[in-house]
Amino acid sequence: MKTLTLCVLLSTIFLAGHAQVDSHDSDKTRVLSLENAWNEAESHKDGKALNALLTASFAYTDSDGSFMNKSEFLASITDPGYDPSHIVNEGMRADVYEHAVVVTGRYREEGTDKGKHYTRRGRFTDTWVQQNGAWLCAASQETLMK
């Protein structure tokens, strides 16, 4: 009887662990696709789409060290003087936690800002949290690379 109980217990633990790994893979895949959706929305200056990806308390630290809340960040993206033509992420890594996913990676961006052409390369860290069944970005930070 003890052997049967032990086998059932071990099977349950194995299956629960396997389900958690599948869930983590699913969360990781979902959040990485949201990172790409973010780039698409930003390159099209789609404030409404970006708004839907961010928590109400979203915090953003720009590459120059300036800090923006959600409304300030969205205003910067939709500013008429900002015109990104190309934004791409590379080498993204997603680490899944119970109700959060932290994404790190590199980005390349090209466009015009206030009439001047720019090209940027940098690293970023985005923290995504699960709220009401949806993954939303709570914080983002980027650093320029030389």
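(ticket continues) Second input and output from the same batch:
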Amino acid sequence: MTPSPIDSYLERLRRELQRHFIVDSRIIQEVRDHFADALDGGHHQDRSLAAEARAIERFGSPELVAAAFVADRTRNLHRSLLVAATVAGIAIAFVDARATWDDAGITAGAMLLVAVVLGLLGPQRPWLWALAVGMWIPTYALVRAPAFGAVAMLLVLIFPLAGAYVGRIARSLLLASNF
């Protein structure tokens, strides 16, 4: 049996949302309910393929609908994650800058771990989380002693960049295994 245009639309919407790391069956059900209301609210109670096509046309493309859900869902999350990344990065840089601290491995591991968690929680912007976590150590080095060696400290960004992208990939794999 061939799926109805609305069922095909809902499947496309589900795939588009998943592409943006949003997996929530309530969204699909809400859209299904909107279609049911649109079809039941017609003057002739028309449930034909033409009526479904008109409802889909009025509703908008799955890509447009998914983009609206993504924007709504991620706005506050991204702000919170940016604040968390910045605070964590400053804390790591503060500990690293202490005269009694001499363990670059723990510093690198801390940046990597924080960035992995941020990449898992906000996979849309891993580069931003990496910069927010890792920019503080090179910034402090440049302020303390402006020289080429301080610019070389930008290599420290490799650790949070790797961590954020590992988190993003891990989230993609976790979502793919659920389907």
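Agent notes: The chain has two domains: 5-60, 74-177. The longest helix spans residues 62-97. Closing as not reproducible unless the customer responds.
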